[in-house]
Structure formats: structure tokens, C-alpha cells
Amino acid sequence: MEAASKNAPRVAIINYGMGNIGSVTKVMNRLGAKPYIADSPDQLEVADRIILPGVGAFGDGMENLRAGGFVDSLETLVIDGGVPFLGVCLGMELMAKGSEESPGVAGLGWIDADIVKFDSAHGLRIPHVGWNDISVADPDHPFIAGIGSGSTFYFVHSYYMACRNRDHIVAETDYGNVVASVVHNGPRIIGCQFHPEKSQDDGRRLLLNFLFGLPPHATH
Amino acid sequence: MLRTRLIPTLTMKDGRIIRTVGFDRYRDVGDPRTMGKVYDSQDVDELILLDISASQENREPDWFNIERVANECSMPLTIGGGVSSVEIIQRLLRIGADKVAINSAGFKNPGLYTEASRVFGSQCLVASIDCVKHDNGKYEVLIEGGYEPTGVDPVEFAQRVEAAGAGEILVTAIERDGTMMGYDLDLIKSVSDAVSIPVIGNGGAGLLSDLVAVIQQGGASAAACASIFNFTDNKPIKARAFMQQYGVHVRPT
User: Are the C-beta atoms of A134 and A173 separated by less than 8 Å?
Assistant: First the structure.
């Protein structure tokens, strides 16, 4: 494991009881960042980057985030403060306004989208598990720099993000339905449906972009 | 378009990776961490690690060695063996598992799938179903590492775990395990036809053409194998190139 340098970005990985924070922590160490597990919102304040990982149900995820007091501090740090944010899998889905999986539960609402279930009428097996291609819709977004259409990433999910506003879409993936596989709300707020931490070289490239390739916040 | 997965499996007993034949007759293959590292360097699609001493001896997973493997994996990792409670699943996910394979505990208590899928989502729950074929042609699910008969038909059980909340099924033909004589295509086809979640075929791959057959004839979404990489000159990249050549849509090599 590489020793992180003094200037290595401190990456807060939010622990809200929703799964696999181990994989994300490991890859962050490997890429020369200083990851730490944030069990409470005050621990986010020193972060240079924030990652919201997670697997599981939308309703439980939002409830845990809220109960942990994370929602307000994320609004302050990410939306107002410009701290770069990456939501992965469920963490990305929570950036939407709501989900068919948990009607009546409001998401973070950072992306103008809803989370919907795959249409089984396409005859495809659900969950969507495995490596699938992306088609890059916004090649100028700094998160996707160096990655082109046809690159493959590892997906594992039963619900997907349907964007109302195409301006949010960085990349899409076809699995019967068109899945928003990378979304953004500005250069520093990013969501990934697939698992970059489990997608080998191309995944590491995206995470390096997240760590070192995003433009600074205007007020910094 | 979704790519068909080729998934090496590692069987661990007493802290060593071993090869089994028919779930019996062990042969040492190597150190778990080294094996994980080798497969990581080969960019395999996924890796499955089954800790068979945990289930055989009715104890918790081998946390130490599982974490040593997980530390080497930049691909998705499924851990099985001794997965008997939500707490164990939570801890496995925390040390680097992406999915867990549930076997005996899910047979005795299908509520484990329901409870775990509510907490973690179905997508990280793999139902591992070990099957034996009897002389009359009928199949039966065995649990406890193949030691305990259940009297239950694999197709019926597969539908039961799907309804309970499993997200994938790993079907293993016990008498093909380690034989390199080819998958039990009838078994795998009957299970994959009966469910709408992905099915991973396992047990018996010895030739590269077996990997094509389990997808095209067995209807599996993924091919799991072990001996074909451990005891022949074949490597995952060569295997994927072969599969592509025969019309299976795999990841570019």
C-alpha cells in the first residue's frame, strides 16, 4: 500500500450503515489519498473529498443518512461549500428526488431524476449484474476525462436513475432501459451507478479524476 | 450490452486454497492472498472465495484470510462459507466483500434472505446451491458441504430463494466438481429457465469450450471455474478471447 503524501486529499467515506465501505477505503489508499470513515457529520468538516457509498434500499439509506444528521451537513459542505462529492451505487441513487422503491421518501434532490425499477418486460434478468459498456454523453466533464464510450464498468443494481433533465447525464448504459450511469450537478458533484472501486483500470482512472482532476471551487 | 462473466472460484480450507474433487479429496493449490493477487493482475471479471472449513466445522468465516484476499482484489469479490447471519454479512461487506454466498443457513432459514435483502439489497446476496444427480436422473439439493441430503429439488429451491430475496444463484453440480469433465448443462439449464435472476454455472469446466457451452446451452449468465486455470495452461484472458470467438459477448481482452 502506498504511503499517502502530506498533501494527499483527505477523503471522507460516509458510514451510514449501508454496506461496503471496505472496498472504497482500500482503493483510496492505493491511489494515494488519505481515506477515513466518517461515522458522524462533524467528521466531514476536514474532508477534501466526500464519498457516499452504499448498497441496499433507498428508504433505509435516506433514513440512516437523516438519522445520522448527515443531510444538513452535506447540503452545507457540498452544495454551499463546493467540497467535491461522489455518490456510488445507492449513494448515487440517493442524489435523486425520490424512488419507486420507497414511495414518499425524499432523496437529496441534487439531480432532477427519480429512481425506478427495471422493466422486466425486456426479458433481461434483474438485478443488472456484471460488466457493461458506457456511452459518454458529456465528454467535457472532468470526471470522465480519458474514458471513452465502450469502456466497461461493474454494475450490480435492481433500480436505476431516470433523469428528467439530460443536462445531468455524463454517461449512459443500455440494459433494456437506458440507465444514467454517470450523472453530475456541476463539475464537483458526481454520481456513479456502477462501482468504480471495483472496475479495475478504468475505474481507477475515474477515481483519480475525482481526487486530482476536478476544478477548484470558486471561493477557495 | 451486458458482458458475460467468467468467474474463477477459490476454495479455502484451513487457510489454504485447495482443489476438491466431488467436494472430497483435497489437494493444495496455494496461499489465498497470492491467488487473489494473481487473479487481480489478470483482471478477471469477478472472484468467488468459498471458505469450506467454516461451514464444515460450523464456525465463523476465516476473517483473517478473507481480508488478505480482499486486500488484493480490485474486482468484485463474493465470499461464501459460514454466512449465517445479518451480522456476519455486515462484517464481510465491511472487510471488502461485495457480495456474499449463502448456502446451508439459507436452506434452514429462508428468512435470512428476506432479512438480509431488506438491509443490504438482493444484489449482494448469492444463493449457493449444491446439487447431486441420483441414478434415477433426479436432482437433489445437498447442504453442509454436500454432507446433508434435503430431499428438495434444485429448481423448486431456486424459485424459493429467488422469492425470498436472493439476487443471483450459483449452481454447483457436486459430482462434476474438480473433474474437468464439463458442466452439468441439464441441471444449469433447468435452474436458469426457472428463475429471472442471473445464474452462475459451476462445477466441471475443463475445456475452454465448456465455458461457451454453459452460457449457450446451459443458459447461465456467468461461468464459474477453478481447475481449468489451476491445472492447465489456460488463463482468464485466453479463455475470454476463446469465448468471444465462439459468440459469447465477454469483456474485451
Answer: yes
List beta partners, residue A39: none
What is the Cα–Cα distance from A151 to B135, expressed in whole angstroms? 48
- Total number of residues shown for chain A: 220
Contacts of A127 in chain B (CB under 8 A): 122-123, 167-168, 197-198
Q: State if pTM tops 0.90.
A: yes
List the single residue in B94, B120, B123 with the smallest CB-CB distance to A127.
B123
Tens digits of per-residue pLDDT, B6-41?
Answer: 999 999 999 999 998 888 888 999 999 999 999 999
Note the pLDDT tens digit of each residue in A137-170: 999 999 999 999 999 999 999 999 999 999 999 9
The amino acid that residue A61 corresponds to is G
How many residues are there in chain B? 253
Q: Which residues contact B112 (CB under 8 A, 6 or more apart)?
A: B84, B85, B86, B102, B105, B106
- Decide if B75 and A56 are in contact by the 8 Å CB cutoff: no
What are the DSSP E strand ranges found in A47-106? 49-52, 85-88, 98-99
Residues of A carrying an active site annotation: 89, 195, 197
The helix (run of H) or strand (run of E) holding residue B111 is helix B111-120
The ipTM value here is: 0.92
Cross-chain residue pair B167–A157, CB shorter than 8 Å: no
User: Which residues of B are less than 8 Å from A23 in CB distance?
Assistant: 70, 96, 98
Rounded to whole angstroms, the Cα distance separating B66 from B32 reads 8
Tell me, what amino acid is at A144?
A: I
Phi and psi dihedrals of B2, rounded to 5?
-65, 135
Cβ contact A131–B3 (<8 Å): yes
CB A131 within 8 A of CB A102: no
* Three-state DSSP state, A11: strand
Q: Measured between alpha carbons, how far is A134 from A113 in angstroms, rounded to an integer?
A: 19
Return the beta strands (E) in A120-176 as ranges.
128-133, 135-136, 152-157, 159-163, 169-175
A148 has a chain B CB within 8 A of its CB: no
DSSP H helix total and E strand total for chain A? 5, 13
Instruction: Answer for the pair B121, A90: CB distance below 8 angstroms, yes or no.
Output: yes
Please choose, from the candidates B41, B36, B102, B106, the residue with its C-alpha nearest in 3D space to the C-alpha of residue B72.
Answer: B36
Enumerate the β-bridge partners of residue A129. A156
Cell reading at A62: 435516506
Minimum-distance CB partner of A55 among B74, B120, B198: B120
